[in-house]
Amino acid sequence: MAPLDNTKGVWKSGRGKGRKTPKGRQLDDQAQSDILELLGERPRNRDLLIEFLHLVQDRFGHISAAHIRALAEEMRTGQAEIYEVASFYAHFDVVKEGETPPPALTIRVCDSLSCELAGAEQLKRALEEGMDPDHVRVLRAPCMGRCDTAPVLEIGHNHIDHATLAKVEAAVANGDTHVHLPPYQTYSEYAIAGGYEVLADLRRDGDWEAVQENVLSAGLRGLGGAGFPTGKKWGFVRMNAGPRYLAVNGDEGEPGTFKDRYYLERVPHVFLEGMLISAWAVEAEKAFIYMRDEYPAVLEILAREIRALEEAGVVEPGYIDLRRGAGAYICGEESAMIESIEGKRGEPRHRPPFVAQVGIFGRPTLVHNVETLYWICKINREGPECLNTVEKNGRTGLRSYSVSGRVNSPGVHLLPAGSTITDVIEAAGGMLDGHAFKAYQPGGPSSGLLPAHMNDIPLDFDTLQPHGSFIGSAAVVVLSDQDSARDAALNMLRFFEDESCGQCTPCRVGCEKAVKLMQADKWDQPLLEELSQAMVDTSICGLGQAAPNPIRLTMKHFPEEV
Q1: Please, which pLDDT band fits residue 5 given cuts at 50, 70 and 90?
Q2: Coil/strand/helix, residue 37
Q3: CB 144 within 8 Å of CB 151
Q4: What is the rounded CA–CA span in Å between residue 528 and residue 546?
Q5: Residue 382: which of 215, 186, 189 has the closest Cα?
Q6: Which are the contacts of 237, defined by CB distance < 8 A and separation ≥ 6?
Q7: Model confidence pLDDT, tens digit, residues 490-545
Q8: Residue 196 falls in which region: left (phi positive, over 0), alpha (psi -120 to 50) or beta
Q9: Fewer beta carbons within 10 Å, N or C terminal of the chain?
Q10: DSSP 8-state symbol, 522
């Protein structure tokens, strides 16, 4: 028997008895060097995986198999685990060995209902015909939260509002593919106007229960869509032993919604102070902001202003952890968002336990929407009267309606919570010339379509449920007599088909089957109703449970079209 070679660790005799390399994909020296340079001194925490994938995607325009191997080596985790996370999110381009990477430039054309009404499909076809596919990739993409300037597309990280082929060609020729920041109120400007004085007073000798009572008396409810009384959440989180966390749900992905972006691009510190007041109220050890990747300007604004807060000593460095989504509507569901914050696929959790008990890293977590925190700040600075003294049609408070579609002045309109669709259209400048009001979407695709004759319902929490709809995030899209309710419903179901996380069969298969059935010349209404009921009864989360609403309401109110 040949002697053991201690320097190599393999027997020298016997052909093929030893391996020179480990099994599987080998570590590439250049890829490893790339990963080490990108990660730098950052901690190799598992929850930072999505942030690291963004670093690779941003630098190279895709994520290669070699980089996945190098990242797995650096994070001491499996390649399969990294691959399944990267392949879950739409904004990561995973390229296997032998595959051709995507072109250097990607144009994403929004195909949401508002953009479709404004001619997005024709624009996409024109771009595909006019661009060299070897240099420019044209993709359809879900709502970008800019419905007031439809049609919209994103070229690199530059959004083109009221997009045309000429505007895109000019941007490509000029290399204008980077984010443009709008003017906004900076930390110094906000502080001069009295910003963060309330927070400082509360930190010094504030009573969290008194603040909670103020929020409750204002009547504030969660403005991400669920409408749960805001102040009550604080008590649910505080009853659980720490450490506790706060998570901001900034994944405003419901098509037609752009109110959060509206406030963040103008007065980010009103939101930030509201967030810090809430974090103080539940004694959160850390605050996470999960912001959708479709909002590059907001991400840059928040990064700058969080640094300003740290430099001013308002927060300790690292207390606010800004996390970047990667193109997944499902992460607007709070438990899916928490999974994503932890660096995983954004799949909703089964409940109970609820996130107030078992949230980020298994700890009690307070989850609030961006606009909810905006109002928490306003309530504490101006008093609960800023909301509870406004009354209309038996409803109390204010609502930020994101209005788009066939109106003269689309945008965010702040109106009394009891406003009807007639009030909303009037605030938005009335219908476009030549268009007669036909139908409206009161709260995103999840709320379905209501006909024009149902124009006297207050658009608020709890008022639309008897009609099979709900206000959700108050994303109002107005349709005219020139639009098809059937086509609008199909647009909504295609969105749900694309965005289903795939975890549960009723939603994954149900959305796909619904789209196929809705493409028929005549809808099989009994079968669609049976499918809808199965999805409502058995889907894990609100996506699958609400996806049938456009089907049911279109069959009910627009039977002549289906």
Answers
A1: low
A2: helix
A3: no
A4: 14
A5: 215
A6: 244, 282, 356, 364, 365, 366
A7: 999 999 999 999 999 999 999 999 999 999 999 999 999 999 999 999 999 999 99
A8: left
A9: N
A10: S
For residue 11, pLDDT beyond 70: no
State pLDDT tens for residues 460-498. 999 999 999 999 999 999 999 999 999 999 999 999 999
Residue type, 559: P
Both tokens of 497, joined, read: 């088909």
Q: Pick from 238, 237, 232: which is nearest to 220 by CA?
A: 232
Signed CA dihedral, 199, 200, 201, 205: sign only: positive
Half-sphere exposure of 265 (CA within 13 A, CB side): 17
Peptide bond between residue 442 and the one before it cis (omega within 30 degrees of 0): no
**Alpha carbon distance 413, 409 (integer Å):** 10
Are 127 and 171 contacting, i.e. CB atoms less than 8 angstroms apart? Answer: no
Is residue 21 scored above 80 in pLDDT? no
DSSP 561: G
Contact present, 344 and 363 (Cβ < 8 Å): no
pTM: 0.94
7 has pLDDT over 70: no
Residue 473's closest CA among 452, 447, 450, 449? 447
Best CA proximity match to 302, nearest among 289, 315, 284 = 289
Supply 559's token pair. Answer: 């039977």
- pLDDT, mean over the chain: 95
Within 10 Å of residue 183's Cβ, how many Cβ atoms? 7
Does 10 score more than 90 pLDDT? no
Cα Dmax for the chain: 95
Nearest to 421 by CA among 440, 438, 407, 408: 440
Q: SS3 string of 224-282? A: CCCCCEHHHHHHHHHCCCCCEEEEEEECCCCCCCCHHHHHHCCCHHHHHHHHHHHHHHC
C-beta of residue 343 within 8 angstroms of C-beta of residue 50: yes
Alpha carbons 124 and 164: distance in angstroms, whole number: 10
Which is nearest to 555 in space by CA: 497, 482, 485, 467?
485
Q: What is the rounded average pLDDT of the residues 420-432?
A: 98
Task: State the amino acid at position 529 in one-letter form.
Answer: E
Position 430: which residue type? Answer: G
Contact 94, 87 (CB under 8 A): yes
* Phi, psi angle pair for 157, to nearest 5°: -115, 20
- Two tokens, residue 113: 């209902």
Within 13 Å, how many C-alpha atoms sit on residue 150's CB side?
34
DSSP assignment letter at 151: S
